[in-house]
Amino acid sequence: MSKALFAGTFDPFTLGHKSIVERTLSVADEIVIAIGVNPNKQTMFNLEQRLQYINQVFADNPRISVTYYEGLTTDFAKIIGANFLVRGVRYVKDFEYERQIADVNRQLSGIETILLFTEEQYANISSSIIRELISYGKDANQFVPLPLTH
């Protein structure tokens, strides 16, 4: 049984990362989506809201679980028994950086990383753009998996 860990980078508010999770399920029996906890990072939604939203997006799929973690991704991967990590790449210019992160993860833990590009139509949509659209009273629902509620 193979288990993938999509950690830290997951943005539940864009269709791009939802697509990455769905594509990962074609090569993994199970995927754990884990939000990295960083108390110094300010985000659009708090941890509970993020966990609730991700669970809502993937509620109908028993192969997906959602949690959070603190510390190194590679340490958490070992704790949950992940066979590989998944990281999303938005732009070609970011690929080299992501490949270097994958090399470091492999050296630290022996765990491999699969890099998946966000589908082109979703690459430029991030939660910061969603936040800006909402702040100007625009409807951002066309870019997110589920309607946003406040």
Main sheet: which strands, in order across?
Answer: 3-2-1-4-5
Main sheet: strands, sense, barrel: 5 strands, parallel
Q: Choose one word for the global shape.
A: globular
Q: State the helix count.
A: 5
Overall structural domain count: 1
How do the helices and strands follow one another from N- to C-terminus?
A: EHEHEHEHEH
Q: What is the CATH T-level topology?
A: Rossmann fold
Architecture, according to CATH?
A: 3-Layer(aba) Sandwich
Briefly, what CATH class? Alpha Beta
Cα-atom Rg, whole angstroms? 15 Å
Secondary-structure class: alpha/beta
Low-pLDDT parts are none
Under CATH, the homologous superfamily reads: HUPs
Span between termini: 39 Å
Overall pLDDT confidence: 84
Number of strands: 5
Helix content: 25-40%
Which percent range describes the beta-strand content? 15-25%
How would you sum up this structure in a few lines?
The protein has 150 residues and is of the alpha/beta class. The chain has a single domain, classed as 3-Layer(aba) Sandwich (Rossmann fold).
Any overview of this molecule?
By secondary structure, the protein is an alpha/beta fold. The chain has a single domain, classed as Rossmann fold (3-Layer(aba) Sandwich), CATH 3.40.50. Helices cover 35% and strands 20% of the residues. A five-stranded parallel beta sheet has the order 3-2-1-4-5, with helices on both faces. Helix 4 links the parallel strand 4 and strand 5. The protein is globular. The termini are far apart.
